[in-house]
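Suppose you are handed a protein chain with no further information: no name, no annotation, nothing but its sequence. What can you learn? This example shows the usual starting point.
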Amino acid sequence: MTTRPSAGTNPGTGPAAGTSGPERRPGDIADVARIAVQAASLVPGVSVVRPAAVRLDDRSVGLDLHLITWYGHSVPTIAETVRAVVTDRVAAQTGLSVAVVTGTVDDLLVPGVDSSGVGTANRVASLLLATALLLGGAAAAVQALLLTVHRPAPLDTSGWLDALSGTRWRDPTVRAVAGGALLLGLAILVAQLRRWTPVRLRADERDGWHLHRRCVERRLADAASAVPGVRHARVRVRRRGGQWRPRVRATGDPAARAEIEFAVRQELRHLSAPRPARIDVRLLPRRRPA
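A reasonable first move is to predict its three-dimensional structure. Written in structure tokens, the prediction is:
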């Protein structure tokens, strides 16, 4: 979502025109982010708010917010309300003109099903990974320090060091490992060069309001799975130009194709997403028990 300076937040209403504003310290950015988060959190339908970027100069500020909203609330209405509330609150408490407010909906929570504690498993996994990397790095540092001062090290490195120093290119194992590493590098290069699906989907070409692609795919899959006789629905959304291209894969009666397409279109309209020209639906018949 994007907003332009309103009459109440005109630069002329802040510091006098032609004078330089006060010097902005790093703490000012944190204050603006805090004010914006507090203001956006009061908007009905908003569950979680976090600032992604704050662009601050002497007279104006630009904000980029990431939100998690409750399913059932209109995304454009939330965007417009957040835009107005954040603009007015930041201008009133800082005297700065809000030049632009953009936002991304990272997820849509279903009351009674989801909670604002989304991502707990990811945070735990990240914490475990960070702990493992920290312990591994500390062990490597201690090992290197002890070897430098010619003290006994906890890890015996003589075996693999002798093995590495004694390898030759004519060794078949060395050639096999080198060839595998080359193929892996080429595969990673090709994967990076191919066109990836977008992380964010623009909901409106006229402003900076976006929906996270995975949350859209999850809601469209839920809508397709709600069709009687349809199971294991998966949705992938790609973007071509300004249009979205949903691709639905599910198990069920092929005769339900029209119902699935209707359900997906209804969900896209509920999300206020651009109307897709085509929805690709592929249904696999259920396997009959032997």
